[in-house]
Specification:
The protein is mainly beta. The chain has helices at 3-8, 15-22; strands spanning 26-27, 30-31, 33-36, 47-53, 60-67, 74-83, 86-96. The mean pLDDT is 90.
C-alpha cells in the first residue's frame, strides 16, 4: 500500500487534480509515476467521494469512489501497482447510484442498492 497515495485523498478533489498531486511525489526517496488507463480518461472530472485501501492479495493498493458532476452517480476508481514506484489509475465505467457500492468490489452495478 502506498501511504503517499492514501494521504493524497481529499473529499471533493477532482480526479485530474489528485493525479497532479500524486504524480512525481516522493515515496521512499523516489518519484511516483502514475499512468492512466485509456478507459478512465473520460472520468477525470469526477470528484473524490470516499476511499479505502485495496485487498492485500491484489495489485490494487487504493480504491476510491468518484462522484459524477451530475451528483447522482459514482464510479469505482483504482490505483494498482504496476512496478516499483509505478501505479496505474483505472475506472470501472458503469455508474453506481450510491457512493458506498462503488467501494465494494464484489457488488456489480446491476446489483446496486438505491
Amino acid at each position: 500500500m502506498s501511504a503517499v497515495i492514501g494521504s493524497s485523498f481529499q473529499k471533493g478533489t477532482k480526479v485530474s487534480d489528485l493525479l497532479k498531486k500524486i504524480n512525481g511525489a516522493q515515496e521512499a526517496g523516489k518519484p511516483i509515476s502514475v499512468g492512466i488507463d485509456d478507459r478512465s480518461r473520460p472520468y477525470m472530472d469526477h470528484t473524490v467521494a470516499a476511499w479505502t485501501d485495496g485487498p492485500p492479495s491484489s495489485t490494487v493498493v487504493w480504491l476510491f469512489s468518484g462522484a459524477d458532476p451530475d451528483g447522482h452517480h459514482w464510479r469505482r476508481f483504482t490505483f494498482s501497482k504496476v512496478g516499483p514506484w509505478r501505479y496505474e489509475l483505472a475506472c470501472f465505467p458503469t455508474p453506481f447510484t450510491n457512493m458506498a457500492d462503488a467501494l465494494s468490489p464484489g457488488i456489480p452495478p446491476s446489483g446496486r442498492r438505491h
